[in-house]
Amino acid sequence: MDLLQYSFTLDPDQPMQAIRERVAAKRDLVCTLPGLRWKAWLISEPLRGRPQPKTYAPLYLFEDTPSIHSFLCGPIYKGVTDAFGWTRPHQGYAITPGETEMSTTRSCALTVSTLNDHETLRVALEEAGRAVALPAGSGIKNAFLGTFAQLDIARMQLRTYAFWACEPEALSQLRSDLIYEVVDVSFPRESP
């Protein structure tokens, strides 16, 4: 399985409600994409004590690379880039495609590890499947749902996505590069 994520940095004055409304209007468009396992509609914005950019950054889990290529060459991705501009997606093999209960997810913490040599690659791959380090006394232990790790060979990065059943604010002290709100999750359905 392969993960695909693209991201658009939004204007700091952009009302995020407009993005939430776009998600509500477009969420069913992806439900018949060949090879799609799920799409998590992610956004980020500044959190209490955490200066984050405003972004729109959907994440997809596809069965295989040809399904991703078909999506990137198709009308849905063209519509996204027409609306937000061109972007360079992160794409790579899903190293830990666990059975995360995506329907209950409310937030996602992204951690990016740059792979500089064989040792950093080895360590990153070992750590990809381990539990996420929780801040002491956070009270969010039971909210952890699971992780997916993506080896992005083009950028030599390991991107680890940890999913949670709590609101993003509860993760503001978590050691990660970015905390996303999961606005919605789309799952495939049979074509009519």
UniProtKB/TrEMBL annotation:
Mind telling me which InterPro entries this protein's record contains?
Answer: DUF4865 (IPR032349)
| Family annotation (Pfam families) | DUF4865
Its domain of life reads: Bacteria
| Gene3D superfamilies the record matches | 3.30.70.100
Protein name as annotated: DUF4865 family protein
Q: Say which species the protein is native to.
A: Ramlibacter aquaticus
